């Protein structure tokens, strides 16, 4: 028990001290209140003090230039420190993720690198600073406008002029109004110094008064706005000597009407010229101005008037009078002075209790008259039954609730500027009395008369509360005193009332103590109200009575509707309304209230009128308004008139048409598309559009075209090919022409697309079936050179021909609607033009069943298995535009018609941008989301055409994809070298090589040229290499006069309009050791005369690797071991002897006459060389030799069974091939003309160069003397033509033709069967080879197909290669270099010469038939042997 008593004692002591602490804590705020001017009410109650919360610095209107930095100042004071945020155009800025905008420590907004372009102005707009203190409230600053100076554009430029000395001169230079501060002048390209005689007017115009000889020269004005300076035309001002004769007095510049704001400076320009020189005087409202004694009025050079620090008194009409003694002229202009909003009375802080009515007072002045709006904690106050605007600008709040606490701001705004002033509302508890006498801001009905409260009993609830009088607009309540205080002489009462169903309660207090009745005014007829009464004594408020429900009476004795209500438009911005007195007045009409509302909005405005007519000004142009009138008598408002609608008069459009776009149709026409101006700016019915266009090079020659108002596109025809044109469009109303769009340029095509045939098949077709629809998407035909006018979509169940829909050629998707569920549809797509429809593309799809909910996003609550149709789709974005910024960046902008007119996003919608390269085969899109009306797409490929589209999503609603916009990124230097670089020898010219290559994989633009670097030292500095330029449309090049038997290294570099790309890796090529007659035409090797090899890491001691391929003269490409060389030579010799013996035995069976006939036959047979331009003379090969089967197939079979043909062993593998000895070189060069004559020089085609030369093996097939092809120009040698023909010489087709070239035939055979073939040309003159007439002698013919350049200057002779009859054995599928093959029966050079000489005398024509019979029989025997 003792412990319990101790614990209780301790608890009592603790409670006592806790109570003391609480008492001190409650006294402290009272002391603070006393310090702040408030009076504490009681030891147990405290009053919250008003918190100082205001702006120290507010942002101001700022002019900036593109690329500069801007600071919008803002600083607010409060304890604790407020949180600062910024709004732009009414939307909060997200400064956390913004790398250009940042919040400074003092709350100012810093914008670095201001962005501004024609279609992208993210920084220009209206900014507002928002300061917030948690648990206290929010205040907003004045609105500041940030203007970014646009691109410099001269609206007028200086013109050349001549003036007399002592006279005045002006030079015009008018630019955009926001760029005037950045204008300066230059004389003779030097900055012009301004003084009292030479001045620059605010418009940019230069005025020179009392001209002297030194004022003559070249003048131009310069605009420097952050970017590169922009110069006007440079003109000459000539100062002539004084002619000492009079000249007419004229104004060079007259004053024009001006509008200025109080405190600004103004210059009224006035410049006159004439002889004698005139003097200028000024008058205002017919009173002369004393410019000499006034400090604010200054007469500038030329006579212009400057007024400093303008006041309202300066407004009026000013007259400029010029007088030169002979005559007087005058001009006048009106000066209008405006004033920014100023507060005559600012709102003050208010204490109040719940249910009270309060009024914040705000009185402003300004010119034009400011409009006033109220803001609570940063949010707009919307007028309602409990928030009302009274006495024009004051805010009345009825029936206060706790949530009404906070900061209220009065914001005044006119055309000149805006201002704000605020006050705080604190709602006290009912037991805390309002600390001061009733302020003017409290209404009389809610004035508290509470004395300082003391501790004591509170009154009980008043008794018998009844509505003793109920009317339509008021109710009188009475009650009896509370039971706790029957006398109640010192009691006051408060009546709380509210509409039924409304939580906000209002209060009415009795006028003096002891009064037990009150009349509640300004109620609504036939409305239910809830009343309760509460008594107060000196200790505070007591209990509340039970609620009393009372309904007001319906309206009676009120005025009827005003008759003959009429409204008519007085101007584009005003409407006059008239009416008459109501017939059923029900008493004297006190006044009328005129209500009006813009059609399509729900915001009705009203004005009190005492007469029967009223003119409303400041309306929107060509906008429909509705009007109604309500008459008031002593009982209140009467019956409203029916609405009368009238539209304000029209005016010229105040904005240009929107979304101007140009579409080049062909080389002579351009289609123009546009959208009407925004509805708010049309100012009338658009009656037409004026299209103006001109050549970009001739800006003065402008053509105009008018179209109807319903037309939104126009085809401009008859234009010049390949010419750039400028276009602009302006809208017309019956009042005139509005402003035009900016000039937009487009260039006609150099040539037109093909429309002589139907389009090809679309490159792809995709379908996506839904329940009752199918979404069809496609890509255009791959061949973009054929005109496509549109697409035809056919569909039907089981057949695509049931219905057909045609869409525009730009469209890439279409939704087929109203289909049956669970049905199989066949869909066809065809591109068409004026010629007809192209090949169709088919696809089928099965629509989904009704029970498929995969496409349904919304469901009924509490019924999850009942699908609801998709929400209504949103409108897709419009006006999608792609602005190319760099080689990998494009900015996409668009507009959203579902947004308000100002295009500000205030909800949670977002946009999805998708893009892909505009390649028909590419259907893969990339996507990105954006919350603004633009998006920056980065990481694109250079010089690539992309297509973009946008969709909008809001909640579960999404739009379809917008129309596509296209943009091609800028070019970039090539980032990869030319590829597949090969080097091959030139046929018949060992000192000439041909370099072939392919364009770079990453050209990044149109290749405009290549540079070939070559050198004999791979390690040499690149500037020591020889450079060979090549035009960009070539992929092969020829280089002449190289040094024989020398390794060369080649590199290639590509260039486009942006610069040079990287070099390719070095490719090595060794020229032949010496000229050779049996060098193969397409000889390729890595050692000599062969295909170049890549040398990625070559050292200075590099030597070509060992290879089995030798040079045409038997020179090895790499050093060989001497023993190995000896073995090869011995082996070749043995094989040669064996073959010679075999052939000798075979030949002994022939008679001498047969040999002579054979020579004669060979003499008469013409070769089969193929040269450019003579392909018609080429005969197809008569014999195909397939190596794998060694099967000889005679193409042209002879009936003669007697074979006569030289036995020629065919090598089975590379070991059978013997290198050609080069000992024949000198004799071959000496006898070159005897064998081939002057052949035309063939050059390899680009295609042949790219595919590379196919290696071939050269084998003489008999010992007959070679014969020259009939297409070769005959030799100029003295030898007869018949004896100088080379026999059966093979040449590769240099052009790769396939019509008549045996080589092309062999290539086709190779590609088809992958079998090597050999082509043997029989020499029977009466079979497959005709004997054409020998062409007449003539000079040698050359046909160079490639540009050729000698590497080093050499004096060596152009040796010609000796040609022998050969067969071309293809080696498709192998990488073995070519090897010449020598058959032992082939005669030596001297022996061949003797044969040619003997052929003239030994061969007889009558032996030809027998000779060919033997040859045919031999061919059959050889065929039988190889088959076995």
Overall number of strands: 94
Please indicate the percent range of residues in DSSP E strands (runs of 2 or more). 35-45%
Residue stretches low in confidence (pLDDT < 50, at least 5 long) are: 1-45, 444-453, 854-870, 1076-1120, 1151-1403
Largest sheet: 6 strands, mixed
Return the structural class. Answer: mainly beta
Helix content: under 10%
> Roughly what is the average pLDDT, rounded to an integer?
74
Report Rg: 51 Å
Indicate the topology.
Layout: H1 2-35, E1 54-57, E2 62-65, E3 70-72, E4 75-77, E5 83-88, E6 91-92, E7 101-103, E8 109-111, E9 125-133, E10 137-149, E11 154-156, E12 161-164, E13 169-171, E14 174-175, E15 183-187, E16 190-191, E17 198-200, E18 206-208, E19 217-223, E20 230-231, E21 235-240, E22 247-253, E23 258-261, E24 266-268, E25 271-275, E26 279-284, E27 287-288, E28 297-299, E29 305-307, E30 316-323, E31 328-345, E32 350-353, E33 358-360, E34 363-367, E35 371-376, E36 379-380, E37 387-390, E38 394-397, E39 406-413, E40 418-428, E41 463-470, E42 475-480, E43 492-499, E44 506-509, E45 517-520, E46 528-537, E47 540-544, E48 548-551, E49 566-571, E50 574-578, E51 591-598, E52 604-609, E53 613-616, E54 624-633, E55 636-637, E56 644-647, E57 658-664, E58 670-675, H2 679-682, E59 688-695, E60 702-708, E61 713-716, E62 724-733, E63 736-740, E64 744-747, E65 762-769, E66 774-781, E67 790-797, E68 803-808, E69 813-816, E70 824-832, E71 841-846, E72 859-860, E73 863-867, E74 878-884, E75 890-895, E76 910-917, E77 926-930, E78 934-937, ...
Parallel strand pairs: 2-10, 12-21, 23-31, 32-40, 86-94
Antiparallel strand pairs: 1-4, 3-8, 5-6, 5-9, 7-8, 9-10, 11-14, 13-18, 15-16, 15-19, 17-18, 19-20, 19-21, 22-25, 24-29, 26-27, 26-30, 28-29, 30-31, 31-34, 33-38, 35-36, 35-39, 37-38, 39-40, 41-42, 42-45, 43-44, 43-46, 46-47, 46-48, 49-50, 50-53, 51-52, 51-54, 54-55, 54-56, 57-58, 58-61, 59-60, ...
Helix pairs in contact: 4-9, 4-10
